[in-house]
Amino acid sequence: MPHSLPSAVLFACTMNCVRSVMAAGILRWMHGTRIYVDSVGVRAGEPDGFAIAVMDEIGIDISKHRSKTFDDLEDDSFDLVVSLSPEAQHKAVEITRTVACDVEYWRTFDATIVEGSREQRLDAYRQVRDELRAKIKERFPPVPWGRL
Hints:
This protein is an alpha/beta fold. Helices cover 36% and strands 14% of the residues. β1, α1 and β2 form a beta-alpha-beta unit. It is globular, with a radius of gyration of 15 Å. The relative contact order is 0.22.
């Protein structure tokens, strides 16, 4: 059953430097300003060069992203929180006790745990990016610009 598009979506993961940043970048790229999009982590992390590289491959620049936590949010009026890690899911459920919004848990692989050559690690990040892109396209289907 198709969902209607929410007006504000928050993606959450553990460190806010790979999965949630990728997801937010993809949704912004797909829907522009039609949906307000933000991302957070349970803890703040450092910019991730592999995430920046694989997003750049599909024309999405996340290099200026600065990691933030749930506590750093200035606005908590989201229609939907999509958590991408178990830690983020726990935190999302916790905050929605006081804020009325939906929470969805998308179990998403943590590419930062992959070891090996640069190419093997990039492949893991590409897999996460492509999985997120497919889920986002399905959950937030593109709407023809002429019709709202």
